[in-house]
Amino acid sequence: EVHLVESGGGLVKPGGSLRLSCEGSGFTLSSYSMNWVRQAPGNGLEWVASISTSNYIYYADSVKGRFTVSRDNANNSVSLQMNSLRAEDTAVYYCARDAWLAAHFMDQWGQGTLVTVSS
Amino acid sequence: ETVLTQSPVTLSLSPGERATLSCRASQSVGTYLAWYQQRPGQAPRLLIYDASNRAAGISARFSGSGSGTDFSLTINSLEPEDSAIYYCQQRDNWPPKDTFGQGTKLEIK
Q1: Which residues, 6+ apart, have CB-to-CB distance to B13 below 8 Å?
Q2: What gap in Å lies between CA B56 and CA B76, rounded to an integer?
Q3: Residues contacting residue A12 through CB under 8 Å, at least 6 positions apart
Q4: Chain B residues with CB-CB distance to A35 below 8 A
Q5: What's the CA gap between A64 and A60, in Å, rounded?
Q6: Using the beta-carbon criterion (under 8 Å), do B98 and A37 form an inter-chain contact?
Q7: For B85, which of A5, B2, B45, B103 could close a Cys bridge (C-beta 3.0–4.6 Å)?
Q8: Does A41 touch chain B (CB under 8 A)?
Q9: Is the Cβ–Cβ distance between A115 and A18 less than 8 Å?
Q10: Would you state the pLDDT for residue A100?
C-alpha cells in the first residue's frame, strides 16, 4: 500500500529555518514527480513546489528564493528546506505524488505536518 | 497564471439530494482538471482527474464533466460523509505550476 509520511514540522521564529521530510513507502519515490502543498489555518490549498523525476524543480513565487526542494533516493524521500520563514508561511504542509509521468494531478497525499512561524 | 474560481462558496443540502459544484478557469485548461475532497482534519483525497475520470476507489456517485474553462463536479444521492470542502486544481503547461480553486464547502444537514 502506498503511504507518504511528512515530518519535521514545529514552531519556529520569524527568520528561522526548518526542514521538512516526506518519506514514501509502497512505491519508488524517485519514479514520480513530487509536490509540496500547504494550507494555512482556515484557508484553502496552495501549491508550494514540485520536483520532477529528472530533478527539475519549480516553486511558487511566494517561496522562491527561500525554499529548496531535494530528493534523497536512498531513503525514498523528498525534503523541503525552508529558510527566512515568515508568519505567512504558517500552515500544514503536505507532500503529494503525481499520479504518473506527465500527470497533471496528485493521487497520493501525506497526512501533513504543521509549521508555525511565531515569535 | 491560470485562476480557478469555484462556486458556490457554500452549499447546504439534505441526504439523498444531488450536489452540483462549479469550477471556472481564467483560460482554457483543456480537460486537465482535477477535483479533491477534504474532510475536516484530513488530507485532500483525489476524486476526479482529467475532468471526468474517477480515481481508484471513488464511488460512482461522484462524476465530473467539462472542458476548456467550465467544469462541474456532481455528487448524487448525498450522504452525511460527503460533508467536506471540495477543491478543483489545474497545472499550467509551462512553467508547470499548480493552482487550486478556493473551495466549495458542502454541508449535509
Answers
A1: B19, B78, B106, B107, B108, B109
A2: 18
A3: A18, A85, A115, A116, A117
A4: 98
A5: 6
A6: yes
A7: B103
A8: no
A9: yes
A10: 87
